[in-house]
Amino acid sequence: MWASCNVKFRDCLAISSVILRRCLSLGVTMAKSKFEYVRDFEADDTCLAHCWVVVRLDGRNFHRFSEKHNFEKPNDSRALHLMTKCAQTVMKELEDIVISYGQSDEYSFVFKRKSNWFKRRASKFMTHVASQFASSYVFYWRDYFEDQPLLYPPGFDGRVVVYPTNQTLKDYLSWRQADCHINNLYNTVFWALIQQSGLTPVQAQKRLQGTLAADKNEILFSEFNINYNNEPLMYRKGTVLIWQKVDEVMTKEAKVPAETGGQKMAVTRTRTKPVPFHCDIIGDAFWKEHPEILDEDS
Ligand code: DGT
Ligand code: MG
Ligand code: MG
């Protein structure tokens, strides 16, 4: 009786394994259906090997978004810190980003030369960065704008640019920081003329037409007693995010004999995090101080 039972059980196992194999082979046949050819219409967007891959995001119509959400002019530190929080989230959640740079409503993310993330497909890099950033912007909004409800969902466009040498990458980042400086100097004078001298936006624009940087510095100093060089670094230089080892102190329940009770003790552990700096990245000093960023195998 037991013997026949065992035989039947073995037969059942054998039959099920045959069915399983048939199902699997059917699955393979289905995957290679006559429709498979449509795959060939997909564009090959592999980023050139061994080049730096940069994804730049920019807020969609943030002129309107900043007005609707009462951003302070010309710089709203809540908005800039929120952008940086989103960029840190992108760096932590995605892979292979070695440095990021942000100003105004934009952030650039640099993927390491040797990254093979998603086989270096540009669309994957760009869409993952943009969606992670946008969802973080909404997710963390309340932490930065406590009294200001988010009135509609913000969007960000993205582009991918591939840079072949360290020099072209550094020039790219210098270009973005120079842009930050030019815009911020202009905006600082423009809004001082409106907010402090009572000019209309059109009058302020006319006043600044054709002026050079030195003229703008002079207006700020002589009319508003503002030394531009004393304006906050975050506004003048933007934000650079690089990986740094950070000591974290946390309290832990100590494992001690039960009779002494649950004692808490401070434990220090070292973690690597994307840390913000508001420094010059156009000169050589930054790159000499952080050679690991451009390291071939970084
Ligand atoms: P786009 O990028 O073509 O969709 O259009 P916009 O409007 O986003 O233009 P864009 O990116 O050239 O300029 C950024 C706008 O965002 C600009 O109008 C100023 C505004 N914005 C960015 N950060 C701040 C800030 O901290 N405070 C204020 N008040 N406005 C800001
Ligand atoms: Mg924009
Ligand atoms: Mg912009």
Automatic annotation (TrEMBL):
Domain tRNAHis guanylyltransferase catalytic residues, every copy: 35-164
Catalysed reactions listed for this entry: a 5'-end ribonucleotide-tRNA(His) + GTP + ATP + H2O = a 5'-end phospho-guanosine-ribonucleotide-tRNA(His) + AMP + 2 diphosphate + H(+)
Superkingdom in the source lineage: Eukaryota
EC code: 2.7.7.79
The keyword NAD is annotated on this UniProt entry: no
Residues bound to Mg(2+) 2: 58, 105
GO BP: protein homotetramerization; response to oxidative stress; stress-induced mitochondrial fusion; tRNA modification
Cited Pfam families: Thg1 (PF04446), Thg1C (PF14413)
Single GO molecular function: GTP binding
Binding site for Mg(2+) 1: 58-59, 105
Domain Thg1 C-terminal intervals: 167-283
Binding-site list for GTP: 58-63, 104-105
PANTHER family to which the protein is assigned, alphabetical: TRNA(HIS) GUANYLYLTRANSFERASE-RELATED
Purpose of the protein: Adds a GMP to the 5'-end of tRNA(His) after transcription and RNase P cleavage. This step is essential for proper recognition of the tRNA and for the fidelity of protein synthesis. Also functions as a guanyl-nucleotide exchange factor/GEF for the MFN1 and MFN2 mitofusins thereby regulating mitochondrial fusion. By regulating both mitochondrial dynamics and bioenergetic function, it contributes to cell survival following oxidative stress.
Subunit and partners: Homotetramer. Interacts with MFN1 and MFN2; functions as a guanyl-nucleotide exchange factor/GEF for MFN2 and also probably MFN1.
Annotated protein name in UniProt: tRNA(His) guanylyltransferase
Gene that encodes the chain: THG1L
